[in-house]
Amino acid sequence: MRTRIGALVLAVVAGLAGCGIPPPEECVQDPEPVLDAQGDVYRCIAAEDCPRSSRISLCVDDTRGDVACLRCLDTRCVTIAPETC
């Protein structure tokens, strides 16, 4: 019984350790600035300040998802592309 519990604990710890591993570089694209008609980057305080279409959502956390989203990054509106891998 002790061996099973030990193996289970090790499996859980190993699984959680993998959660913090960033994806390979080729899977992550740099954030793209959101530009206005004059080619200037939109400025923001929060992601809600950024202009967006109905097809793109606001990023809810710092992790990349399966779809693109908008974020306010260093007072600039940027589009975060989804992971490609």
Low-pLDDT stretches = 6-19
| Overall helicity | 10-25%
Q: Tell me the β content.
A: 15-25%
User: Helix segment count?
Assistant: 1
Q: How is this structure best described in words?
A:
By secondary structure, the chain is α+β, with helices and mostly antiparallel strands. Helix content is 21%, strand content 16%. The chain has one helix and four strands, in the order αββββ. It has a four-stranded mixed beta sheet, with no helix packed on it. The radius of gyration is 19 Å and the shape is globular. About 16% of the residues have low confidence.
Topology:
Elements: H1 2-19, E1 32-33, E2 57-58, E3 69-73, E4 76-80
Parallel strand pairs: 2-3
Antiparallel strand pairs: 1-4, 3-4
Offer a quick outline of the entry.
The chain has 1 helix and 4 strands; from the N terminus they run αββββ.
Attribute tags:
single chain; 85 residues; alpha+beta; 4 strands
